[in-house]
Every structure is written in C-alpha cells, then in structure tokens.
C-alpha cells in the first residue's frame, strides 16, 4: 500500500478504530445538542460545532505515520467502522470520509509529508472543512438555508476544524510522542514536532 511498512498499516488501523468510536460518539452528542438548540432555530449549529471532530483522523494519523495516502485511508477506515457500529447516516458517511480526507492529503502532499507545523496542521484541517462544505452543497443539504446562515455555519465549522483537527491533534500527537510510544516514527525519534522544510 503506497510505500507503507507493516507497522504503518497497524498504526493506521489502530487509530482508525479509536477515531471511529470518537466519531460515533460525536454524532450522538450532536443529535442531543440539536434537540436543545432546535427551539431557537439553531439545530444545524449542533453539528457545525462538532464538525472538526470528524476530521481528526485525517490530520492526527498522517502526522504520526507521515506517508502518502494516510489521511484518506485513516479517514475512510474510521468512517467505515463507524457505519458498521451503527452510524444513522449510513454508507454515505464512507464517501464523506473520502472527500474529507482528500483536503488534508493535498496539504500534506504539497510539502512531501514533511511539514507538520501547527500552521500546516491547521491548514490541513481547514482544507477538510472546505472539502466537506462543498460536499454539503453537492448533496443538496444546504439549499434550504439562507446565505447568511450558510456563512455562519461555515465560520463555525472552520473554527471547529482548526481547534479539533488542527490544534488539538497537533498537541495530542506531540504529547504522545513525548511518552516514547512513537519511537519507531520520525515524530517520536526526533522528539521535535516542528518538522518543516
């Protein structure tokens, strides 16, 4: 698979399972939050607030493995497992995973999977946000909203993406590397997360 080693396949698989549980939990929490916000006409924002959670595999796992294809594969695997566990939106989530993973994949590929600075992680998260928002238009789910509503939905989703899939994933991976658990990877060996060209 690409230029992956066996340890890469195992690492991607492990974290894909972990994130699938996180993703599914976020779905149910968003549904709960939507019922609270519905009386105020703000139900869509329940999902936008948490949307960045659903991109986390596509930034966290590539930061660790640092090989081509990891962003897409980890996001798709997480989505697949999530669907198997009972995501109410069904198999369409898998296609969403492909699209969401492509954004970060392109950002990381541009720097040959060597730049995982905080800025680049946030750019990757933003790319996932943009890709997912375009996908929302293609699916037709946004036609019922006014332009101003869509603008605010995008802003909230962008902030969520940068916070969860950019900042939090960057910090979490760095902390994990600091424990020595990633000694088989560049991130763990260098113990210096600012890997820039």
UniProtKB/TrEMBL annotation:
Name the source's superkingdom.
Bacteria
Family matches, as InterPro entries: ABC_thiamin-permease_prd
Membrane-crossing ranges are 12-33, 45-65, 77-98, 118-138, 150-173
The reply to whether Membrane figures as a keyword in the UniProt entry is: yes
Q: Is Metal-binding among the key words of this record?
A: no
Q: Which UniProt keywords apply?
A: Membrane, Transmembrane, Transmembrane helix
* Protein name from the UniProt record: HMP/thiamine permease protein ykoE
Q: Which organism is it from?
A: Fusobacterium ulcerans
């Amino acid at each position: 698979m690409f230029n992956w080693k066996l340890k890469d396949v195992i690492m991607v698989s492990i974290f894909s399972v972990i994130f699938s549980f996180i993703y599914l939990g976020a779905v149910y929490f968003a549904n709960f939050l939507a019922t609270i916000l519905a009386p105020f006409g703000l139900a869509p924002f329940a999902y936008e607030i948490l949307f960045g959670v659903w991109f986390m595999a596509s930034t966290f796992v590539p930061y660790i493995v640092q090989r081509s294809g990891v962003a897409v594969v980890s996001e798709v695997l997480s989505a697949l497992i999530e669907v198997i566990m009972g995501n109410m939106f069904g198999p369409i989530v898998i296609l969403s995973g492909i699209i969401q993973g492509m954004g970060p994949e392109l950002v990381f590929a541009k720097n040959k999977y060597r730049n995982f600075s905080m800025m680049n992680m946030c750019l990757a998260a933003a790319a996932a946000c943009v890709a997912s928002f375009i996908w929302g238009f293609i699916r037709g789910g946004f036609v019922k909203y006014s332009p101003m509503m869509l603008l605010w939905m995008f802003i909230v989703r962008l902030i969520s993406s940068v916070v969860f899939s950019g900042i939090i994933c960057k910090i979490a991976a760095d902390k994990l590397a600091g424990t020595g658990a990633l000694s088989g990877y560049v991130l763990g060996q260098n113990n210096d997360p600012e890997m820039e060209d």
